Amino acid sequence: MDASARSDNEGRGLLRFLTCGSVDDGKSTLIGRLLYDSQLIMDDTLSSLAKDSRKHGTVGEDIDLALLVDGLEAERQQGITIDVAYRFFATPNRSFIVADTPGHEQYTRNMATGASNCDLAIILADARKGILSQTRRHTYICSLLGIRHVVLAVNKIDLVDFSQETFDRIVAEWSEFASGLGFRTAVPIPVSARFGHNVTRSGEEMPWYAGPTLLAHLETVDVEAEAAEKPFRFPVQRVNRPNLDFRGFSGTVASGRIAVGDAIVVAASGRQSRISRILGPDSDQDMATAGEAVTLCLADEIDIARGDVLAPPKDRPEVGDQFAAHVLWMDDKPLLAGRQYQMRIGNLWTTASITSIRHRIDVNTLERQPARQISLNEIAVCHVSSTQRVPIDPYAENRATGAFILVDRYTNHTAGAGMVDFQLTRATNTYQEHYPIDKHARAALSNQKSLAIWFTGLSGSGKSTIAKIVEQRLHAERRHTYTLDGDNLRSGLNRDLGFTDADRVENIRRVGEVAKLFVDAGLIVLCSFISPFRAERQMVRELIGGEDFVEVFVDTPMEECMRRDPKGLYAKVGRGEIRNFTGLSSPYEPPIKPDLHLQTLGTTPEMQAEVVLRHIAMLIGEASGRDAPSR
Amino acid sequence: MQARSAGRLSPHLRRLEAEGMAIIREVAESFRNPVLLYSIGKDSSVVLHLALKAFAPGRLPFPCLHIATGWDFRAMLEFRDRRAAELGLNLIVHTNPDGLARGINPLDHGSQLHMSVMGTEALKQALDAGKFDAALGGARRDEEKARAKERVFSHRSPGHIWEPRNQRPELWGLYNTRLAPGETMRVFPLSNWTELDVWTYIEAENIPIVPLYYAAPRPIVRRSGMLIFRDDERMKLEPGEQTEEMWVRFRTMGDWPLTAAHESRAESIDEVIAEIQSSRVSERAGRLIDQDQEASMERKKREGYF
Asked: Which ipTM did the prediction report?
């Protein structure tokens, strides 16, 4: 191999691959070997490596090649890889980007991250241990993430005396598992990363092996994804409008090709036009193919924004807001059905929720298991509902329009990675009926404004007491009201729900939907629910609409709630008769900006109710001033 | 009709170019007030070049920021001002006024304190003063082990803190660009480039770079085994030291007392590329600041170094 390979004279282009496998199978050592043998390790790096090897190394006096790759301090101290590291090398024939990903189960997300950006995977197995459950898991995740080319590197073959029988047995076991996973090429190679056999040079010790060395295979394998042959997809990244004479749409061609004169359709709106001009990185081009960053101009002035997808009119993605997907969970906080997340698909940000978890997949056995929530590093098949209708292709057909991420709305953590399986037809078959009498008309008849007043706070904080007084007073003013609380809903509509986090989310979702119907009926709805999670209160606010929703935080310190204990619940918790009790064994997230913040200590429920009533009067006054200026 | 795509570049460089342009466009669209950190080196010259391409025929939609430490090579400052005028850049130059008042300098206070006050602190000041929520930079993953694990969109907690154990996963180029108040993002469009990629791209695209990258006779002082280009009189010669004229060039750009030159006759980009290909030392070996302690880059980055 030649270290002086110029990155501009290679013919095969770039190969992005990842290495994965069980802990201690030797991933980092293998990459270190590739870099070392390709003479890409510089003298100063080598001298600091020798220093590191003496300090942290695991191979005695030898240079520990894995230390080249394990960059972060904690990893070198623990001797494991806890993040994705990227490495670069080139031969005269090809340039390579290597993603080194961790083996432990708790880092499945890091492995998936590596796999999402790669064309090929090297799955390592220790010749002494054979196929472990982790090997199966990594093989499955590669397949799930759409990797179509894999190498099974049976490592440490020197430690089993270069035994062909051992190699064949491991390959047979793995092939049985991997055969149904849709790999286009699956090449087993016996290697010793530590000594380099069959990594960059043939191992004379294995005359029975006639296949290529690992590097030779990497140099020649053809992964030129059929991206260019797929239908044209162009997620608009930016509207480029520097002056009145120019209006173009910048982005990267995700798949297929486009030429000047071709017809296109904006997938979501159905508007059509033709390509009038293609600006490439240097100058005008006649055409562009997958992977190119270009700016497209159209023959007609049609409405297009960031997030739209341009496609051929005869081969366009389906547009919908309900779909089935595989979701890999990456956040410490589990995925709960019903909770809203920010969703990014292509260049579009919208909100989405998981409407149901169909089943969880045991990544070691591929068995389906029932589940109510999905924890960190677990994979499940889910039904997803997005707020906005989005253009979607199944992930297996197109990564660019079939992949999405879910982001926690409060921490902004990237919480989930999703791969669309198919659209659900519900959205296209049910139509929202529009009735001429709406909530404004209904509310106006009784000279009021429909509202949802949402009381949140700890058990025993005084929510229901205040709500009762408010309702009595409103009723005396001849306002039409209704009360929803945990007791009247949990005994009927929600009697199938318990008090786990997942059930609490579903409880609030149903309450929100019922409150929405009552608001639509023109009523003032008083809702008293502990509703411990910000995400669900936000969900209800959006469901009902901010202008009709008033969040009231009934703020009573825990000690005071325990002292009052009107239902004797705190006493029961104390006796161990209740689990999952908010504020004690289950979290309460106080509102950050409630519409009303009632601090109850030192006041009376009547005084608090007065605050709420004044706020309601103000909103009704505003509404009547706006809706009926003639009055 | 002639089917033609971009011409001179290899498929490999074309792919890196497209990825870089997409990342830069993403920054313009996703943040309220981004800025391009223009360090005047070869890498940020490439980032600037990609940015100009990304928004053509429009102009750069954000300003450029240079952190001047007071010890920049004069040739870099001349180059910076000439390029800014040619390209019509909105250029902001910031120097840490507190550090200046305290007279912090690399000769008396050492590289660590100098770079911490005049580099890292100054950068944080400028980002805070401009209320910039995203900063584009030219760092590459092949430079250093801690960088190899950094994200393309690298999240910073309030106070510009990098938390390497708590990085957001990046899948499919679906970057998570969301920020809470006080948080910021550092963005690296050249993450997947190597030093050689940068040079071959500069050659193919004919990108102007600071002349210090090319060999020329320069006044050199040998100090602690390093060849230091004595750019002005503030560096006093110690007993036994003398300035000698030597043919040297620089592989990276930093403050002149902290950047070692090496002997070279590479006067053209071809010769520079040939020299790098046969080199047996890594790029950052010429940077005195990186060798202070093991894992020093990771520590500096956590504190907000770029």
From this structure: 0.88
